[in-house]
Design brief:
single chain; 477 residues; alpha+beta; 4-stranded antiparallel beta sheet; 13 helices; globular; RluA_PseudoU_synthase; Pseudouridine synthase RsuA/RluA-like domain-containing protein; PsdUridine_synth_cat_dom_sf; pseudouridine synthase activity; PsdUridine_synth_RsuA/RluA
């Protein structure tokens, strides 16, 4: 959203329209059925995940169009022969906000406005990194006076009344954002564009032998042993480099696999992807009714006591997820059951290097602890946040282990722990929360010591297990 981005770039005020020839696809607010199919192309057998021979750009010469071939080799690896839209490493995030100043082709407009190569913009569209709204959303408080001026100009009632695409819509409805999926899309003056110029990348997708990661294939679903450092179903700026996309390609499916639940990018293990909408709906229902059982293996820096562990998680959809041992009104209950905990060797240097495990500077690195966990509630980052909160953080967890180390150094620093420092005012408590958040690190880009080792439902009749976790080295016989 516009409000979440500090750096904004809005084009100059609207100029006179330059109407294009008929036949261009015009952006409009999708219908409910269109929303359900927002990732599909309109032509038969032309799906967003399928290999494309080329992207045809309006008013572009053949020299400006390059192949986009994708194929699965015999060993299950997927090759990507086109120039990638950015380097394989993650660049500093860059999001640009534009208000279209004249009617035209979306690719051409963005390319000109941001001075980006047309091939680069075409790849961004392929990645799902460009979004639009018929009317520009309200600028954030950080917007410049010029940006606020432009917003007011393009949202004047007299200006909006002249746009036929807004007929029958409220301004609030027209400000909803949708993903652009077609490089040939036509945009009219006044359309808002959000361009993720540097999308988050998942280069590990190209390194994986996806054949070896398939646990089961049925008529309704696929069970995947998800690799760490990959996304389940994508993000707001990358729907290309995902487990769902690569598994769909490898299996040669005519219909893309659908996500039924989430696993953190840095976590590996059992992932269920639906083949049909019906199964997706059924599986969601089973999760709501707590009929899906999930077992995890966690590699921790300290021994974890067996038994039930309960916390309450702050209802804020931002990382790090903060938890409290004591009940707080409105916070979500998080529960897990530690079934067993055994001592194991700390991962050796070669294993750490191979899997790019982050060094979180834990003082003792001789012994680790492997725990089997029955996840009773399924909140984002729950296992990671709960284990760190009791001083037994997961190895390699660059976000939560630093906070656990900080709490060891200063037991009063966690404002939600029983040994917290009492605050005399709301301002002091807010400052304590801000300080506690600053003790956490960034989200890991590689693996951490956490695996979704088993998933089952239907009273155990459907049960699947992942392979050995990364920290277990296979011995050659």
């Amino acid at each position: 959203m516009l409000a979440s981005c500090v750096a904004a770039s809005i084009s100059s005020a609207l100029v006179s329209r330059s109407f294009w020839a008929a036949g261009r696809r015009t952006l409009s607010a999708p219908t409910s059925s269109a929303l359900r199919n927002c990732r599909r192309r309109s032509r038969k057998k032309d799906h967003w995940w399928a290999p494309k021979a080329k992207i045809v750009l309006p008013r572009a010469s053949e020299a400006n169009v390059i192949p986009t071939e994708r194929r699965a080799s015999a060993d299950g690896h997927t090759e990507y022969s086109r120039l990638l839209p950015c380097p394989s490493h993650n660049m500093v995030p860059r999001i640009e906000h534009l208000v279209v100043s004249e009617d035209g082709n979306v690719l051409d407009y963005i390319s000109k406005a941001l001075r980006l190569p047309s091939k680069y913009v075409a790849d961004l569209i392929q990645f799902g990194a460009i979004h639009y709204a018929l009317v520009c959303p309200k600028p954030p408080p950080t917007a410049t006076p010029e940006q606020v001026k432009i917003y007011r100009e393009v949202t004047e009632p007299s200006v909006l009344q002249r746009r036929s695409s807004l007929k029958g819509k409220t301004v609030r409805e027209a400000q909803k954002t949708y993903r652009i999926a077609d490089a040939n899309a036509f945009v009219e003056a006044g359309t808002y564009l959000r361009v993720h110029v540097h999308p988050k990348r998942f280069p590990r997708c190209y390194e994986i032998d996806w054949k070896s990661r398939i646990i089961a294939v049925t008529d309704s679903y696929v069970v995947l042993d998800k690799p760490a450092a990959t996304s389940v179903g994508g993000s707001s700026d990358n729907i290309e480099e995902t487990c769902a996309t690569f598994a769909s390609r490898f299996l040669g499916l005519d219909t893309p696999l659908k996500t039924t639940h989430q696993i953190d990018n840095c976590t590996e293990g059992c992932l269920v992807l639906a083949k049909t909408k019906e199964f997706c709906s059924v599986f969601h229902g089973m999760i709501r009714e707590k009929q899906v059982k999930k077992l995890y293996l966690a590699l921790t820096a300290e021994p974890v006591p067996t038994g039930l562990i309960s916390h309450y998680m702050r209802p804020v959809n931002l990382a790090p997820r903060l938890v409290s041992r004591e009940f707080i009104e409105g916070w979500h209950l998080c529960q897990l059951e530690v079934l067993e905990c055994k001592e194991v060797p700390w991962p050796n240097t070669d294993v750490v290097k191979t899997h790019k495990i982050e060094d979180c500077e834990w003082p003792s690195k001789k012994t680790a602890y492997e725990c089997k966990i029955n996840l009773l509630t399924g909140k984002t980052h729950q296992v990671r946040a709960q284990l760190a909160a009791i001083g037994t953080p997961i190895i390699g967890d660059l976000m939560y282990m630093p906070a656990a180390l900080a709490a060891i150094s200063n037991p009063l620093i966690n404002p939600f722990d029983k040994q917290r420092k009492e605050c005399s005012s709301d301002g002091d408590k807010l400052a304590a929360v801000v300080e506690w958040i600053s003790c956490h690190g960034k989200e890991p880009n590689s693996a951490i010591g956490l695996q979704a080792s088993q998933i089952s439902w239907n009273d155990g009749n459907c049960s699947y297990e992942a392979g050995p976790p990364w920290w277990i080295v296979k011995k050659l016989i």
